[in-house]
Amino acid sequence: MADGEDLDLNPFYKSLQTKFSSKFETAQDRCYLLCIPVAASLKGIYINQQFVETHVLRPSPYFQSHFVSSDKHGSRSIVLENGHIHTKDGFPTNTAIKILSEELGYNKDYKPFKMLIIEKPLDSTLKSREDPSSPTLDLQETRISFQDNKRLLFQFPEHKTALAVLDQNIRQFNSNYMILQGYLDHAAQKLKDICFHTTENLLKVNRHRRMNSDRRIVDLITNGVESYVMGSVHGKVFQAVCQKCAKDDEIICQKVKEFHGIRGEEFGVKPEFCCPLPASIVELANLDGLTTPLEKVSCLKATLDNISEEVNDSLRSNSMPGDELPCLTSDDLISILITLLIQAKSRHLASNLYYMEHFHWSTSSKDDLSFSLVTFKAAAEYFINTDFSYLKPLTPKVKNEMTFEEIIAVKQEQEGDDNKDKTNKTRPSTTASPRPRLSSFNRELDNITRMIEKTSTSSTDNGPIKSLFPEYDQVQASGFGKRTPTSPPDVIPISKSAGAAPLGDFLSSLQNDLLDGTYGKQD
Predict the structure, then answer these.
(1) Contact 267, 338 (CB under 8 A)
(2) pTM for the complete prediction?
């Protein structure tokens, strides 16, 4: 710990334990990284939700030693390197902040999490609560939805004229512009030009005092214009995109139906990464209902973040304290995404990916959005072009038993077919038809039916009884051992040979035998 730094007296650490206790508890349970500025650097700083999310960071699902802020969209990122924290995406400037010391804490499951004591806050532009010049524009807020970006643009009075021109251009596009098949690139270029010129006009008239010093304001306005334009023309543009990508969408939908229920292991997911992903499925299922490219690509990123978080939670719950957890690679993500696509059942996945790739132009330092799009494109291409016919789809549940009535009904139906075959066999034919082979199911059904019929009929049978010893049939035919049909013989015929031995106990017991055959030695 830094000399003289007591965490119990640190304003930020005290806020985590009191005002933001739920956030602190979540950070401990999921082993997040806590960056705690020394108390001396926090004088006049207002510790709010954005401050906490900036200094409570979760591991990046893409790179080691990379961490992202704990807000919903992971809008900021840092890198730990050589005893310093290097601020990257989402910060107004990239700076290196010295790590003064490191503390190790343990959660209720005795799993460790790190707390880094740093020399100053990660964002040097944070203002105090009492600063009268604090801007009304919250630069910490992440604006993704169409409505949020629309409110951003219209909250500046100086934007009124430029936005009126933009609304007129949007109305003309929706009413007059015709999107022809094969000319989607032309439509994309036209909308891109509208966004570029509108953004340029807004930046010229905007009077925000940080306009020339804070790159985040430029990014906010650029993203806001694109979201406003694409959200306004979505109905017209996306319909044309769906027509262009209809074949790929149909292939994906067909495979989703065909392979529904197949386990992740069969698609190559490693056993340790196989776990339920409910939050990821729900997030991806929202994709079709979003309108702007920024909303859609942010949905992909949130899905990947949820996958990483849910898999890591599963790994931690199944590991012992101190065990090193395996890391998800890009190949692992592809396999997991295949199972996720099947469960989320997106009807227009190929169309959405095309829409994001060709109608999202706003410059942004968030490379993780691009990575998310590339990862999903790779998964979709793999799903479309790979032959999974060797995998057996989930079959309907098989009944383990059949009722007596069902067995008899099936057997009667088969007997009806057999009678037809017998009728056909009585007719002369020059060629002998091969006897059909019974399936194992039919053979088993025959056996079961015979047993049922035997138990349900009388034990007496008026038909002739076959001999158990067919080898003596010829002897019977010659006159020996014949009997009248009225009753069985009283005794077994004895050989006339002088040296014949008397009957033993076994043969004597067979004298009243009902079987159609004689026993004993025959002369």
Answers:
(1) yes
(2) 0.56
